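Quick question, first post here. What does this chain look like in 3D?
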Amino acid sequence: MTDETPVYVISVAAKLSGLHPQTLRQYDRLGLVSPDRTTGRGRRYSARDVELLRLVQQLSKEEGINLDGIKRIIELEKQVLGLQRNVADLSATVDGAAAVLAQREAQVHASYRRDLAPYQEAQRAGERGTRQQNGPST
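> Answer (accepted):
Ran it through. C-alpha cells below.
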C-alpha cells in the first residue's frame, strides 16, 4: 500500500483533512483534488489526496489564494514533478551511455599493439642516434 492507494471514503477523508464532505465534492468538481472512483462511482481518497486537501485549505485560508490560483499552483507542481522525473531519466541514460563509452574506449586502448613504438618517439630516437654518430652540432 502506498500514499497513492485510494482507501478513504469521502467522510473519512473529510475528517482527516478537517473539511466538510461538501467542500471535498466542490474541490472534485473544480478539478483541485480528483479522487479515484469505485465501479459504483463512489469517491476513494488516498493519503496523498488528503495531504493535497490540507494544502488547498492552507493556501486558501492562510495565504488568501483563490481556488483558480490554487488549481494553477497544483498544475505547476505536477508539471515540475514530471520534469524532475524526466531529468532523472535523462541523467540515468547519459550516465549509462558514458559508462558504455568508457568501456568501449578501454577496449580500444587494450587492443593497441604494444610491440610498436609511437612514430614521434621513433623519429626522435633516430635523430639522437644521428647526432651521436656525427658528433655535436654547432
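The first helix runs from residue 10 to 17.
The beta strands are 36-37, 43-44.
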